Amino acid sequence: MVNRQITPLLSFSGDLVQPVGSVSLPIAFGVALRKSMTYDQFLIVDCPTAYNVIVGRTTLTVVKAHLSPHMLLMKFPTRNGTGTVRGDQLSARTCYETALKSVACKPPMEAMAV
């Protein structure tokens, strides 16, 4: 494995976040016979967010995923036919609202000075 320097990321709130490290993890898309497995390298960050993980375009390309954000649907080929992952409108809305609240409730930088 190549040891690369990890550069800061721009968070959803617009702040620079320094990753703590990285880890390679298996990812399973779908269920039972219509499942696709792959590995991806994830950066570990210490920052509040509504998301547990963000899967990049490179991984979606490896899985040959076709996305329909409007339908909250992802389809991908498997050995046993087309696999699907469906989103949930209520869960998506809750995550979005949580992300907005965490940005809105952020204290001013002057209050954080020690």
Number of strands: 7
Number of domains: 1
Beta-strand content bin: 35-45%
Structural class: alpha+beta
Helix content: 10-25%
Rounded to the nearest angstrom, the distance between the terminal CA atoms is: 40 Å
- Label the overall shape: globular
What gyration radius follows from the Cα positions, in whole Å? 17 Å
Q: What letter string, H or E per element, gives the SSE order?
A: EEEEHEEEHH
Biggest sheet architecture: 3 strands, antiparallel
Please report the number of helical segments: 3
Mean pLDDT: 83
Strand order of the largest sheet: 5-6-7
pLDDT < 50 runs, ≥5 residues: 107-114
What's a quick, concise take on this entry?
The protein has helices spanning 57-62, 89-104, 109-112; strands spanning 9-10, 16-17, 21-31, 34-44, 66-68, 73-78, 81-86.
Q: How does the SSE layout of this entry go?
A:
Blueprint: E1 9-10, E2 16-17, E3 21-31, E4 34-44, H1 57-62, E5 66-68, E6 73-78, E7 81-86, H2 89-104, H3 109-112
Characterize the structure shown.
By secondary structure, the protein is an alpha+beta fold. It is built from three helices and seven strands, in the order ββββαβββαα. It has helices at 57-62, 89-104, 109-112, and strands spanning 9-10, 16-17, 21-31, 34-44, 66-68, 73-78, 81-86. The strands form three sheets. It has a three-stranded antiparallel β-sheet, with no helix packed on it. A two-stranded antiparallel sheet has the order 1-2.
